[in-house]
Write a structure and sequence with these properties.
transmembrane helix; coiled coil; 239 residues; single chain; 3 domains; alpha+beta; transmembrane
Length: 239
Amino acid sequence: MKKYYLHNGTESSGPFDIDELKSKKITQTTPVWFEGLEKWKTAGEIEALKTIFVAIPPPIDMSRETPPLQKVANNSSKKEILGLSKSTFWIAFGVVIVLIGITILNTIEDKRTRELELKNHKTEAENYQLELQQKEAEDQKIQAAMQEKVAAEKVIADKKQSDSSRLLEIEKTLANSQINLDAAEKMLTNAADFKLLRTATEKKEQLDLLKNTTDSIKNEIEQLKKESNQLKLELEKIQ
């Protein structure tokens, strides 16, 4: 007995015998193959299978029943729109239009409100940023002023320390210079009164030398006193 294979367009199935094919409800266009065929054929091309085709009844012609239904539909369509009476339809249509209008207005109003809120928020953020910048600038000015004050105070303190140290140094130098001056003046007096065998020229040279030394010491003392007085005035101003 021959065994037949079927193909549904994507894959093949089988093998089936004649009785099994009857239950498959094949048609004349169903691809069929059995051993001995070179290629697939439709079931209508195989004589042995013509007796098992499923008979498909023709569609019922409903054209005779259509006119009365259409007439009824036409009659009802005169009184109804989309299944509603004309008055109900127009009322509903009006309500829908009003609702759409309200929705559009609400949408526009909401959009304006959001835009205004965003604008206000942006303005507030900009104002806050400006305040922060101003505060930062003020803080920088205060910090710079404090630094300048500290630097000025340091300069004054250094100046005061330097002047005080110089005054002490001048006082010591003045004390030493005064001692040297006293000694030089004494030597000058002694040299003038000292009576030894020496020529007038030698005496004059010795007296001139001692006098120059005395004058030099006096000049040094005078310069030191001027410097001391100037430093004292500066210290008084600093105080």
